[in-house]
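Researcher: Next sequence.
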Amino acid sequence: MLDYTLRRIAFLALVLFVVTTITFSLAYLVPGDPARLVAGDKASQEQVEVVRIRLGLDRPIPVQYAMYLGRLLRGDLGRSLHSNRPVLEDIRDFFSATFELTTLAMGLTVVIGIPLGVLSAVRRGSLVDHASRLFSLAGVSLPVFWLGLLLQLAFGMALGLPIAGRVSSRVLMDAPLQTVTGMYLIDSLLTRNWAVFRSAATHIVLPMVTLALPSLVLVTRMVRSSLLEVLVQDYIRTARAYGFPERVIMFKYALKNAMLATLTLIGLAYGYLLGGSFLVEAVFAWPGLGRYAASSIILSDYPAIMGVTLLVTLAYGLVNLAVDLCYAWIDPRVKLR
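Model: Next structure:
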Protein backbone atom coordinates (compact mmCIF):
# COMPACT_ATOMS: atom_id res chain seq x y z
CA MET A 1 0.00 0.00 0.00
CA LEU A 2 2.79 2.43 0.91
CA ASP A 3 4.76 1.66 -2.27
CA TYR A 4 1.65 2.17 -4.38
CA THR A 5 0.87 5.48 -2.66
CA LEU A 6 4.41 6.76 -3.17
CA ARG A 7 4.33 5.80 -6.87
CA ARG A 8 1.01 7.55 -7.34
CA ILE A 9 2.32 10.69 -5.64
CA ALA A 10 5.38 10.65 -7.92
CA PHE A 11 3.11 10.28 -10.95
CA LEU A 12 0.96 13.15 -9.67
CA ALA A 13 4.08 15.33 -9.47
CA LEU A 14 4.80 14.49 -13.12
CA VAL A 15 1.23 15.39 -14.08
CA LEU A 16 1.55 18.73 -12.27
CA PHE A 17 4.77 19.44 -14.18
CA VAL A 18 3.09 18.71 -17.52
CA VAL A 19 0.06 20.83 -16.63
CA THR A 20 2.33 23.66 -15.52
CA THR A 21 4.22 23.53 -18.80
CA ILE A 22 1.06 23.55 -20.90
CA THR A 23 -0.58 26.33 -18.90
CA PHE A 24 2.56 28.48 -18.94
CA SER A 25 2.89 28.04 -22.71
CA LEU A 26 -0.77 28.86 -23.36
CA ALA A 27 -0.48 32.01 -21.26
CA TYR A 28 1.93 33.44 -23.84
CA LEU A 29 -0.26 32.49 -26.78
CA VAL A 30 -3.25 34.41 -25.44
CA PRO A 31 -3.37 38.03 -26.65
CA GLY A 32 -2.66 40.59 -23.96
CA ASP A 33 0.16 42.33 -22.17
CA PRO A 34 0.48 41.61 -18.43
CA ALA A 35 2.83 44.55 -18.00
CA ARG A 36 0.24 46.92 -19.48
CA LEU A 37 -2.40 45.40 -17.20
CA VAL A 38 -0.30 46.06 -14.09
CA ALA A 39 0.81 49.53 -15.16
CA GLY A 40 -2.69 50.64 -16.15
CA ASP A 41 -4.25 51.90 -19.34
CA LYS A 42 -3.03 55.46 -18.81
CA ALA A 43 0.60 54.50 -18.20
CA SER A 44 3.22 55.61 -20.69
CA GLN A 45 5.29 53.16 -22.68
CA GLU A 46 8.30 53.89 -20.48
CA GLN A 47 6.30 53.02 -17.36
CA VAL A 48 5.10 49.81 -18.99
CA GLU A 49 8.68 48.84 -19.77
CA VAL A 50 9.71 49.47 -16.17
CA VAL A 51 6.93 47.14 -15.01
CA ARG A 52 7.94 44.57 -17.63
CA ILE A 53 11.51 44.54 -16.30
CA ARG A 54 10.32 44.37 -12.69
CA LEU A 55 8.15 41.33 -13.46
CA GLY A 56 10.90 39.65 -15.48
CA LEU A 57 8.78 39.65 -18.63
CA ASP A 58 11.66 41.06 -20.68
CA ARG A 59 13.61 37.82 -20.35
CA PRO A 60 13.38 34.83 -22.74
CA ILE A 61 10.41 32.52 -22.15
CA PRO A 62 12.54 29.51 -21.08
CA VAL A 63 14.23 31.70 -18.46
CA GLN A 64 10.86 32.94 -17.22
CA TYR A 65 9.62 29.36 -17.01
CA ALA A 66 12.68 28.26 -15.04
CA MET A 67 12.16 31.16 -12.64
CA TYR A 68 8.51 30.21 -12.23
CA LEU A 69 9.39 26.58 -11.48
CA GLY A 70 11.96 27.71 -8.94
CA ARG A 71 9.37 29.82 -7.14
CA LEU A 72 6.83 27.01 -7.41
CA LEU A 73 9.15 24.54 -5.69
CA ARG A 74 9.39 27.01 -2.80
CA GLY A 75 5.60 27.17 -2.56
CA ASP A 76 5.37 30.56 -4.25
CA LEU A 77 2.63 30.77 -6.90
CA GLY A 78 3.52 34.33 -7.78
CA ARG A 79 1.64 37.57 -7.23
CA SER A 80 -1.76 38.33 -8.72
CA LEU A 81 -1.62 41.03 -11.37
CA HIS A 82 -5.06 42.26 -10.34
CA SER A 83 -5.15 42.15 -6.54
CA ASN A 84 -1.37 42.57 -6.11
CA ARG A 85 -1.51 39.89 -3.43
CA PRO A 86 0.27 36.52 -3.40
CA VAL A 87 -1.80 34.06 -5.42
CA LEU A 88 -1.50 31.50 -2.65
CA GLU A 89 -3.23 33.88 -0.21
CA ASP A 90 -6.00 34.61 -2.72
CA ILE A 91 -6.57 30.91 -3.36
CA ARG A 92 -6.61 30.15 0.35
CA ASP A 93 -9.30 32.76 0.93
CA PHE A 94 -11.49 31.70 -1.99
CA PHE A 95 -10.90 27.93 -1.84
CA SER A 96 -12.35 27.58 1.66
CA ALA A 97 -15.74 28.80 0.40
CA THR A 98 -15.66 26.39 -2.56
CA PHE A 99 -14.48 23.48 -0.41
CA GLU A 100 -17.28 24.05 2.09
CA LEU A 101 -19.92 24.23 -0.65
CA THR A 102 -18.71 21.24 -2.68
CA THR A 103 -18.12 19.01 0.34
CA LEU A 104 -21.66 19.57 1.61
CA ALA A 105 -23.03 19.10 -1.93
CA MET A 106 -21.13 15.81 -2.23
CA GLY A 107 -22.37 14.73 1.18
CA LEU A 108 -25.94 15.43 0.10
CA THR A 109 -25.31 13.43 -3.08
CA VAL A 110 -24.10 10.39 -1.14
CA VAL A 111 -26.72 10.54 1.62
CA ILE A 112 -29.63 10.76 -0.82
CA GLY A 113 -28.26 9.14 -3.99
CA ILE A 114 -27.16 5.79 -2.56
CA PRO A 115 -30.39 5.00 -0.61
CA LEU A 116 -32.48 6.17 -3.57
CA GLY A 117 -30.51 3.91 -5.92
CA VAL A 118 -30.92 0.95 -3.55
CA LEU A 119 -34.65 1.58 -3.25
CA SER A 120 -34.99 1.86 -7.02
CA ALA A 121 -33.14 -1.44 -7.55
CA VAL A 122 -35.06 -3.32 -4.86
CA ARG A 123 -38.40 -2.11 -6.22
CA ARG A 124 -37.52 -2.43 -9.86
CA GLY A 125 -40.42 -1.52 -12.15
CA SER A 126 -42.42 0.03 -9.33
CA LEU A 127 -43.69 3.57 -9.07
CA VAL A 128 -40.63 4.48 -7.00
CA ASP A 129 -38.33 3.17 -9.74
CA HIS A 130 -40.15 5.08 -12.48
CA ALA A 131 -40.17 8.26 -10.39
CA SER A 132 -36.44 7.85 -9.75
CA ARG A 133 -35.72 7.51 -13.46
CA LEU A 134 -37.84 10.55 -14.26
CA PHE A 135 -36.04 12.50 -11.55
CA SER A 136 -32.66 11.39 -12.94
CA LEU A 137 -33.58 12.37 -16.49
CA ALA A 138 -34.73 15.82 -15.34
CA GLY A 139 -31.65 16.33 -13.20
CA VAL A 140 -29.24 15.52 -16.02
CA SER A 141 -31.16 17.51 -18.62
CA LEU A 142 -31.58 20.78 -16.70
CA PRO A 143 -28.68 23.25 -17.13
CA VAL A 144 -27.24 23.96 -13.72
CA PHE A 145 -27.43 27.76 -14.05
CA TRP A 146 -31.10 27.55 -15.07
CA LEU A 147 -31.82 25.21 -12.16
CA GLY A 148 -30.21 27.71 -9.83
CA LEU A 149 -32.39 30.51 -11.14
CA LEU A 150 -35.51 28.34 -10.75
CA LEU A 151 -34.61 27.53 -7.15
CA GLN A 152 -34.02 31.20 -6.45
CA LEU A 153 -37.44 32.08 -7.81
CA ALA A 154 -39.25 29.16 -6.18
CA PHE A 155 -37.66 28.91 -2.74
CA GLY A 156 -36.08 32.33 -2.43
CA MET A 157 -39.41 34.02 -3.04
CA ALA A 158 -41.71 31.49 -1.35
CA LEU A 159 -39.64 30.48 1.69
CA GLY A 160 -37.47 33.55 2.00
CA LEU A 161 -34.19 31.66 1.66
CA PRO A 162 -31.18 33.85 0.82
CA ILE A 163 -30.27 33.75 -2.87
CA ALA A 164 -26.79 35.31 -2.82
CA GLY A 165 -23.64 35.38 -0.70
CA ARG A 166 -22.34 33.21 2.14
CA VAL A 167 -23.71 35.08 5.13
CA SER A 168 -25.70 38.20 5.89
CA SER A 169 -23.49 41.27 6.19
CA ARG A 170 -25.76 42.61 8.93
CA VAL A 171 -25.24 39.44 10.97
CA LEU A 172 -21.47 39.74 10.56
CA MET A 173 -21.61 43.33 11.76
CA ASP A 174 -23.61 42.39 14.84
CA ALA A 175 -21.68 39.16 15.56
CA PRO A 176 -18.21 39.22 13.91
CA LEU A 177 -16.88 35.78 13.06
CA GLN A 178 -13.49 34.66 14.24
CA THR A 179 -11.86 32.91 11.27
CA VAL A 180 -10.27 29.53 11.99
CA THR A 181 -10.63 27.41 8.83
CA GLY A 182 -12.30 29.89 6.48
CA MET A 183 -15.41 27.71 6.37
CA TYR A 184 -18.21 29.68 7.99
CA LEU A 185 -20.24 26.73 9.26
CA ILE A 186 -17.28 25.09 10.98
CA ASP A 187 -15.84 28.36 12.28
CA SER A 188 -19.18 29.45 13.71
CA LEU A 189 -19.57 26.08 15.45
CA LEU A 190 -16.04 26.21 16.87
CA THR A 191 -16.55 29.74 18.17
CA ARG A 192 -20.20 29.14 19.14
CA ASN A 193 -21.35 32.03 17.00
CA TRP A 194 -24.90 30.77 16.50
CA ALA A 195 -26.14 33.86 14.67
CA VAL A 196 -23.54 33.41 11.93
CA PHE A 197 -24.15 29.67 11.87
CA ARG A 198 -27.87 30.13 11.21
CA SER A 199 -27.21 32.71 8.53
CA ALA A 200 -24.51 30.63 6.82
CA ALA A 201 -26.68 27.50 6.95
CA THR A 202 -29.60 29.22 5.23
CA HIS A 203 -27.35 30.86 2.63
CA ILE A 204 -25.75 27.57 1.59
CA VAL A 205 -28.96 25.59 1.06
CA LEU A 206 -29.84 26.69 -2.49
CA PRO A 207 -26.33 26.61 -4.00
CA MET A 208 -25.68 23.25 -2.32
CA VAL A 209 -28.82 21.68 -3.79
CA THR A 210 -28.11 23.18 -7.22
CA LEU A 211 -24.56 21.87 -7.25
CA ALA A 212 -25.49 18.45 -5.88
CA LEU A 213 -28.40 17.59 -8.19
CA PRO A 214 -26.46 16.57 -11.35
CA SER A 215 -24.12 14.32 -9.35
CA LEU A 216 -26.99 12.99 -7.25
CA VAL A 217 -28.92 11.65 -10.23
CA LEU A 218 -25.79 10.03 -11.68
CA VAL A 219 -24.99 8.31 -8.39
CA THR A 220 -28.58 7.12 -8.09
CA ARG A 221 -28.54 5.54 -11.55
CA MET A 222 -25.09 4.02 -11.02
CA VAL A 223 -26.10 2.42 -7.71
CA ARG A 224 -29.27 1.04 -9.28
CA SER A 225 -27.57 -0.48 -12.32
CA SER A 226 -24.63 -1.91 -10.34
CA LEU A 227 -26.92 -3.37 -7.70
CA LEU A 228 -29.16 -5.03 -10.28
CA GLU A 229 -26.09 -6.76 -11.74
CA VAL A 230 -24.98 -7.99 -8.32
CA LEU A 231 -28.39 -9.23 -7.20
CA VAL A 232 -28.46 -11.92 -9.91
CA GLN A 233 -25.10 -13.41 -8.89
CA ASP A 234 -24.91 -16.95 -7.52
CA TYR A 235 -23.64 -15.96 -4.07
CA ILE A 236 -26.71 -13.75 -3.55
CA ARG A 237 -29.02 -16.66 -4.41
CA THR A 238 -27.00 -18.85 -2.07
CA ALA A 239 -27.33 -16.36 0.77
CA ARG A 240 -31.07 -16.24 0.24
CA ALA A 241 -31.23 -20.03 0.18
CA TYR A 242 -29.48 -20.12 3.56
CA GLY A 243 -32.20 -17.87 4.91
CA PHE A 244 -30.21 -14.71 5.53
CA PRO A 245 -32.42 -11.66 6.14
CA GLU A 246 -32.92 -9.53 3.03
CA ARG A 247 -31.53 -6.51 4.83
CA VAL A 248 -28.27 -8.34 5.57
CA ILE A 249 -28.00 -9.61 2.00
CA MET A 250 -28.61 -6.18 0.56
CA PHE A 251 -26.31 -4.04 2.70
CA LYS A 252 -23.60 -6.49 3.77
CA TYR A 253 -23.08 -8.45 0.57
CA ALA A 254 -24.77 -6.90 -2.45
CA LEU A 255 -24.25 -3.17 -1.89
CA LYS A 256 -20.63 -3.57 -0.85
CA ASN A 257 -19.78 -5.25 -4.14
CA ALA A 258 -21.88 -2.81 -6.12
CA MET A 259 -20.10 0.22 -4.66
CA LEU A 260 -16.86 -0.03 -6.65
CA ALA A 261 -18.21 1.64 -9.79
CA THR A 262 -20.20 4.09 -7.69
CA LEU A 263 -17.11 5.00 -5.69
CA THR A 264 -15.29 5.86 -8.91
CA LEU A 265 -18.16 8.10 -9.96
CA ILE A 266 -18.26 9.79 -6.55
CA GLY A 267 -14.53 10.51 -6.68
CA LEU A 268 -14.66 11.96 -10.18
CA ALA A 269 -17.77 13.98 -9.33
CA TYR A 270 -16.15 15.44 -6.23
CA GLY A 271 -13.05 16.45 -8.15
CA TYR A 272 -15.25 18.00 -10.83
CA LEU A 273 -17.28 19.94 -8.27
CA LEU A 274 -14.12 21.40 -6.71
CA GLY A 275 -12.98 22.79 -10.04
CA GLY A 276 -16.23 23.16 -11.94
CA SER A 277 -18.52 25.16 -9.68
CA PHE A 278 -18.11 28.32 -11.79
CA LEU A 279 -21.74 28.69 -12.90
CA VAL A 280 -23.26 27.93 -9.51
CA GLU A 281 -20.97 30.41 -7.79
CA ALA A 282 -21.80 33.03 -10.41
CA VAL A 283 -25.57 32.54 -10.06
CA PHE A 284 -25.52 32.69 -6.25
CA ALA A 285 -22.72 35.28 -5.94
CA TRP A 286 -20.75 32.73 -3.94
CA PRO A 287 -17.24 34.10 -3.26
CA GLY A 288 -15.41 30.91 -4.11
CA LEU A 289 -12.65 29.63 -6.34
CA GLY A 290 -14.90 29.54 -9.41
CA ARG A 291 -15.59 33.27 -9.29
CA TYR A 292 -11.91 33.95 -8.62
CA ALA A 293 -10.88 31.88 -11.64
CA ALA A 294 -13.51 33.47 -13.89
CA SER A 295 -12.46 36.99 -12.96
CA SER A 296 -8.78 36.04 -13.42
CA ILE A 297 -9.50 34.78 -16.94
CA ILE A 298 -11.39 37.96 -17.83
CA LEU A 299 -8.56 40.14 -16.49
CA SER A 300 -5.80 37.97 -18.04
CA ASP A 301 -4.30 37.44 -14.59
CA TYR A 302 -1.88 34.69 -15.64
CA PRO A 303 -0.35 33.87 -12.22
CA ALA A 304 -3.83 33.45 -10.76
CA ILE A 305 -4.99 31.30 -13.68
CA MET A 306 -1.98 29.02 -13.33
CA GLY A 307 -2.42 28.79 -9.57
CA VAL A 308 -6.07 27.74 -9.89
CA THR A 309 -5.18 25.22 -12.61
CA LEU A 310 -2.53 23.61 -10.43
CA LEU A 311 -4.89 23.45 -7.45
CA VAL A 312 -7.66 21.79 -9.47
CA THR A 313 -5.18 19.29 -10.94
CA LEU A 314 -3.85 18.49 -7.47
CA ALA A 315 -7.40 18.04 -6.14
CA TYR A 316 -8.27 15.63 -8.95
CA GLY A 317 -5.12 13.63 -8.36
CA LEU A 318 -5.58 13.35 -4.60
CA VAL A 319 -9.26 12.41 -4.92
CA ASN A 320 -8.47 9.69 -7.45
CA LEU A 321 -5.72 8.38 -5.18
CA ALA A 322 -8.14 8.25 -2.25
CA VAL A 323 -10.67 6.39 -4.41
CA ASP A 324 -8.10 3.78 -5.44
CA LEU A 325 -7.09 3.24 -1.83
CA CYS A 326 -10.74 2.82 -0.86
CA TYR A 327 -11.04 0.06 -3.47
CA ALA A 328 -8.67 -2.15 -1.49
CA TRP A 329 -10.48 -1.32 1.74
CA ILE A 330 -13.93 -2.19 0.37
CA ASP A 331 -12.94 -5.23 -1.71
CA PRO A 332 -9.91 -7.27 -0.50
CA ARG A 333 -9.74 -8.91 -3.94
CA VAL A 334 -8.48 -5.64 -5.43
CA LYS A 335 -4.70 -5.59 -5.63
CA LEU A 336 -2.94 -2.26 -5.88
CA ARG A 337 -0.01 -2.44 -8.29
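Model: The first helix runs from residue 2 to 29. Residues 2-73 form one domain.
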